[in-house]
Amino acid sequence: MIEKNYQPADIEARMSVVWEDSLAFKAGRPDRRDAVPFTIVIPPPNVTGSLHMGHALNNTLQDILCRFERMRGRDVLWQPGTDHAGIATQMVVERQLMERQQPGRREMGREKFLERVWQWKAESGDTIINQLKRLGASCDWSRERFTMDEGLSKAVIKVFVELHRDGLIYKDKRLVNWDTKLLTAISDLEVQQTEVKGHLWYLRYPIEGKTFSPEDPTTFIVVATTRPETMLGDTGVAVHPEDERYQKLVGKNVILPLVGRKVKIVADDYSDPEKGSGAVKVTPAHDFNDFEVGNRHGLRRISVLDKEGCLDLLDNEDYLKGLPEGASQFAEEFNKVDRFAARKRIVERLESFGFVERIEPHTHMVPHGDRSNSVIEPYLTDQWYVDAKTLAKPAMAAVRSGETSFVPKNWEKTYFEWMENIQPWCISRQLWWGHQIPAWYGPDGKVFVAETEEEAVSHALGYYVEQEVITVEQGREMALDRNKREGFITRDEDVLDTWFSSALWPFSTLGWPEDAPEVQRYYPTNALVTGFDIIFFWVARMMMMGLHFMKEVPFSTIYIHALVRDEKGAKMSKSKGNVIDPLNLIDEYGADALRFTLAAMAAQGRDIKLATSRVEGYRNFATKLWNASRFAEMNHCAVPEGFEPAKAKETLNRWIAHESAHTTREVTEAIEAYRFNDAAGAIYRFVWNVYCDWYVELAKPVLLGPDSPAKDETRAMVAWARDEILKLLHPFMPFITEELWEVTAKRDGLLALAPWPLKPSGPTPEQLAMLAAAAGPTDPLISPAFVMPIFDHADFTDPKAEAEIGWVIDLVTQIRSVRAEMNIPPATLTALVLAGASAETRERAPRWTDVIKRMARLSDISFADRAPDGAVQLLVRGEVAALPLKGVIDVAAERTRLDKEIAKADADIKRAESKLANEKFVANAAEEVVEEEREKREAALARKAKLLEALERLKQAS
């Protein structure tokens, strides 16, 4: 028995237990042994994370695909897991230690600290997994993985060692994003560009051989900079090769103010003649662009900052080399001064010597660490790198050939732009939490990369015995006694970038590098659902690693979803106070309502503007379905054994079978094409408009009437159509549909495992050949006899039933629209004249007279050769239906009202168009504000069109 009120929380808790106890989501179920696999890997959320709206969207869309394919008979593996999130997790635990006034990381030592992190992970690290379960994610939770699991760690070590052996991993001194607070390199994704109000300093650099005078421009060249403190590391000044002002100076030197170092003037396209003075200082060790300019011109790299962002001058051989006598005094004075304090003092010193031409206010973007909020330094340091350029070539070729395709396709352009300009990938991090780099150093710094310490020791001892650094006997002793090699060979303390281990996710989670049968069955995966912001950081790297180690692309389709913004279109952020917590929405409206909202708004390539009112609206949609199911149950609607809807005799019942088949095709095709919003829209229209508003309403006279064969058939059909709805809606709203299926369908088995409404047919010859080739004769998990679910869309249709019921619906709908436009009170009944009606209309109208009169608020329905004078004429499926409204409405008053409404719409259109025509407004206003004005204009135009249509109709009645 269906409860009177729809209570999402009760249903969700109960259904979660049912699914878990029945192992509904387990991959490799015995009943799916011969089924075609369908695999998706979850983008592993950070173990420190909690569910945010991006997670909710991403996982809802993945779940729709998984539930859809599971119902289509596939052996679905939705692989869940979490990422160890190096920096984030280490910060959480360090902050915890500080808050509890316990010893810090350094005092604890590496081993004890890591024990503490693992303890935290065991206690608090599953928060987001439990939240994903609340959302209804149908992952195979028995296969949950963690990027620091033993098996995944083994994969990481193997990949590192093999790439190093192949020359694709190496150590190099390059610039990295350096966090001076966390004291580690970080990835570009962990850098936030923040707009800062600062200054632009125009500095005079004296030209070598000329006596510097601030009043004589021929004695100096002016460079503009936002960072005067890094000038101490300048090794060049760049001017554009075609800038006539400086052509005679190219190749000459300037003297670096305060320091006295000779700095060469070079010609390089990087300098923009239109910006600043047209000349820029080149500091290769402190700017990513300058690093490349320095490489092109062979300029020295002089790092003048230490890891904590203080000037490092006194014992800095690179800095002191080539300086004139007396420069060491300046080094002593400024050594270990914080970079921002140094900036102020250096500018003061430059001003005192006349080296500052002018200072201008300057707003610019400054990189900050997303966790430390510290200003990020481009820092020259030794790090481990992957030769990403080499690995990117096959990854680009795979997308160009169509082995892997992006949806929407326009994201391929972004992918190629990033990949074609790819730089070496810095994979080392100065942290303790993570996969420690499998590299050991000998006494002379020689590196030994190996999968285990024993293997590294063996290589090292063999090498140093051969080099006669140690004797054979010493080597044997060290090999046997760990204490005797202490200090002789030491492991690299750094860990790997989190993206390195997550790049292996599609195959490491399946058991690779072991010869696991799951690797053969579930790799490559089918689809990846992810956000555009990690195309480069994760998607591209999975492509590289998958192709290199598995010799196959990791997924055939990459679906890129957009952002979830607030209802005005602004990006959600804590600082704006506009963050919407999905868990709060689930608590208030239910997971099904949130899921359906996100799916219904997930148009390809368009950001989602999420308003709480939309979620509330879809909760009402769930309530509508609930109440319709209760109505069916209360009227004893049930599907009898052996019922065949195609054999229904009643026109209304054949019509709902026709509409159901049409909607099933529509929903199926939309999900297959990743048009989630179209699929949701189709099922919404079918449930609310077709089934509830029309079919159930039109069926009520039969259901409430005397017993008859028509009533029996209608009861069966009401229940059958409801069950089809539950199947189609299940991928979007799994909780309510599973509950109603259990209570009303009265069948064995779960809805989650019920067959999708479109019946499968056999595979084509081409697909059979493909499947046989994929399976192989001895494959333990894939039988060559399995059948791929390929669906025959030529399902039940009845054009005659659609024509009749469609005519009734269109007629009632248009009459209701006119009544609303003309402000006709509900109590006022109007007449209807069917003018020049066809034989079909004359034959069907009497069957539906009572229904049409009741639903359209009519007093009478009659036939005539032509429409009466003064009647509003409606064109219904090619025929005229007339409403005589003389004496029913005050035509003059109604025309005045419509004229006022049209004038108001015109004013709204003019106001919006005026703003949108203002170039300054469009350029300077926030994106969401501009979009809001566009929406206002479109809404006003649509409103005006309807009003004009109503006015035109009114003229017929006058």
From TrEMBL:
Transmembrane segments: none annotated. A motif ('KMSKS' region) lies at residues 571-575. Pfam families: Anticodon_1 (PF08264), tRNA-synt_1 (PF00133), Val_tRNA-synt_C (PF10458). Residues 895-957 form a coiled coil. One of its GO terms (cellular component) is cytosol. It catalyses: tRNA(Val) + L-valine + ATP = L-valyl-tRNA(Val) + AMP + diphosphate. Residues 18-610 form the Aminoacyl-tRNA synthetase class Ia domain. It is found in: Cytoplasm. Residues 890-955 form the Valyl-tRNA synthetase tRNA-binding arm domain. PROSITE patterns: AA_TRNA_LIGASE_I. Keywords: Aminoacyl-tRNA synthetase, ATP-binding, Coiled coil, Cytoplasm, Ligase, Nucleotide-binding, Protein biosynthesis. It comes from the Bacteria. ATP binds at residue 574. PANTHER family: VALINE--TRNA LIGASE, CHLOROPLASTIC_MITOCHONDRIAL 2, VALYL-TRNA SYNTHETASES. Catalyzes the attachment of valine to tRNA(Val). As ValRS can inadvertently accommodate and process structurally similar amino acids such as threonine, to avoid such errors, it has a 'posttransfer' editing activity that hydrolyzes mischarged Thr-tRNA(Val) in a tRNA-dependent manner. Monomer. HAMAP family: Val_tRNA_synth_type1 (MF_02004). This is Valine--tRNA ligase. It comes from Bradyrhizobium rifense. The lineage of its organism: Bacteria, Pseudomonadati, Pseudomonadota, Alphaproteobacteria, Hyphomicrobiales. The gene is valS.
